[in-house]
DNA sequence: TTTATAACTTTGTGATACAAAGTTAATTCA
DNA sequence: TGAATTAACTTTGTATCACAAAGTTATAAA
């Protein structure tokens, strides 16, 4: 039996899942890029990013030169948590396809 | 890019995802069996089952003889929707593992 | 006919997704 | 220089929803 208690709720929510998937597929994303790709409102996006930061999954880098730009990236812990999440997805896919 | 808009919210929620995964792995489940396996309260379980029924994903069978027992099973449409959902999960897993 | 059980329904609470509008700081342009 | 623009927020309000707990109904066993 799959242990659904282990399903990470922070990652599982659609908005944050899409963010995590982007961050894992490419190292860094600017706030604006995430917003454009994911078509979220500022408020919604920042709130999800804050949840992910609060969970320790995401960190930021500010560009000191030029325009005010914030880049978001996965932490080591974020990568690990996402890997664990993916393992659970795999179990679901496997069980659902058998 | 994965289209997260296509992610079926009815299925994606943890409780209902666990129900759907059970139903696809074995044809029929009694209410009591689901409750025992998933450790949900009556109210929570029935509410999720109702949502799934409302979406047309789940149907019921009542035993006419003996005790009052209700069995739950996937509809054709539920199987199809779940397959679509799994395809999206596969995309996430693939993208996340590359 | 009392008791027990399955399958509900109802109600209340707390969490949260999301949009919209407002704020702040820095940069560019007139 | 200062007005306008832009990025990155914060705040606020709403609507949804997960979940638990307690109450209801119908059936069956004792």
How would you describe this structure to a colleague?
- Two copies of one chain form a homodimer.
- Chain A has 98 residues and is an alpha+beta fold.
- Chain A has one domain: Winged helix-like DNA-binding domain superfamily/Winged helix DNA-binding domain (Arc Repressor Mutant, subunit A, Orthogonal Bundle), CATH 1.10.10.
- In chain A, 60% of the residues lie in helices and 13% in strands.
- The first copy, chain A, has five helices and three strands; from the N terminus they run ααβααββα.
- Chain A has helices spanning 9-12, 14-25, 31-38, 42-54, 76-97, and strands at residues 28-30, 58-62, 70-74.
- Chain A has a three-stranded antiparallel β-sheet with strand order 1-3-2.
- Chain A is elongated.
- The relative contact order of chain A is 0.19.
- The mean pLDDT of chain A is 95.
- The interface between A and B is medium-sized, with 25 and 25 residues.
- Chain A binds a DNA duplex (30 and 30 nucleotides) through residues 13-15, 30-32, 40-44, 46-48, 66-70.
Q: What is the number of helices of chain A?
A: 5
The radius of gyration computed from the alpha-carbon positions of chain A, rounded to a whole number of angstroms, is 15 Å
The N- and C-terminal alpha carbons of chain A lie at a distance of: 14 Å
Number of strands of chain A: 3
Mean pLDDT of chain A: 95
Q: What's a quick, concise take on this entry?
A:
Chain A has one domain: Winged helix-like DNA-binding domain superfamily/Winged helix DNA-binding domain (Arc Repressor Mutant, subunit A), CATH 1.10.10.10. Chain A contains 5 helices and 3 strands, in the order ααβααββα.
């Amino acid at each position: 039996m799959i242990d659904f208690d282990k399903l990470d709720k922070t990652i599982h929510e659609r908005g944050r899942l899409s963010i995590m998937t982007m961050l894992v597929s490419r190292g860094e994303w600017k706030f604006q890029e995430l917003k454009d790709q994911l078509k979220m409102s500022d408020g919604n996006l920042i709130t999800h990013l804050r949840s992910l930061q609060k969970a320790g999954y995401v960190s930021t880098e500010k560009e000191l030169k030029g325009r005010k730009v914030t880049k978001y990236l996965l932490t080591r812990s974020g990568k690990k948590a996402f890997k664990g999440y993916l393992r659970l997805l795999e179990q679901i896919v496997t069980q659902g396809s058998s």
